[in-house]
Write the C-alpha cells for this entry.
Amino acid sequence: MMDTIFRVWSDSFEDGKPIPEGFAYAKPDPMGKEHTLPAGNRNPQIAWSNPPLGTKSLIVICEDNDVPADFSKANVEGETIPADAPRTSFIHWVLVDIVPEEPCIDAAALSKGISPRGKRGPACANGMRQGLNDYTDAFKGDPNNEGHYYGYDGPCPPWNDERIHRYVFTVYAVDFPLLPLKGNFNGRDVKEAMKGHILASASTVGTYTLNPKLLKNS
C-alpha cells in the first residue's frame, strides 16, 4: 500500500539530533579565545512528501521555543541561565508560496553565510517569498546589526544557557496558492493568515547548544 501520510525530513540533520555548525548562525570557538564565532548560516535541506489533495502551496517555519523569556543574563560573564527558566519563542525561518510540486528546499539554496543587517526580501527564487525572522526584532536599536532579516538565519542560543535548544522545522500544506499578505510579514502574521487554511502539517526537529559544558557531555 502506498504511503499517503504527509512527511517532512531533512538530509542536513537527523530528527532529534544536533544541527551541524554549517547551518547555525554562531559556533563555539575551537581555540577558546572567544565564546562564539560566526558560523556557516546556510539554510538546511528540508524535504516533504505526500501533500494532501487540494494543497495549493507550502509554507516553512522554523521556531525555537526554548529561548529565555528574560534575556538580561544571556551571554553575560559569570551568569548562567537555568534549564528550567521560563521560555518563549523565536522564529528563525519564514518561507511562503512554495509550489507543492517542489520536493524540497536544497541546503544553502536561500542562505549562505551571515548578511550584515539581513538578507534581501521578501521576493526570492522560484516565486517564493521570505518573511522576516525574529533577528529583525532582536537587533533593533543595535547600530551595527539593525535591519530587515528575511528568510533563514540559524541557531545562536546563549552560550551560558543550560538548556539544549530545539529547532522545529514545520511545513504546512495550505489551500491558497499565494499567502494573502503583501509587503513585509513575520512568522506570527503567517500563522494568523493560515488559520482555517491548513490541510496538513508535519515537522522535523534539530538541536543546538553553544554551552561548552553541554557540548562536553553530549
Notes: Helices lie at 135-138, 187-194, 212-217. The chain has a mean pLDDT of 95. The two ends are 40 Å apart (CA to CA).
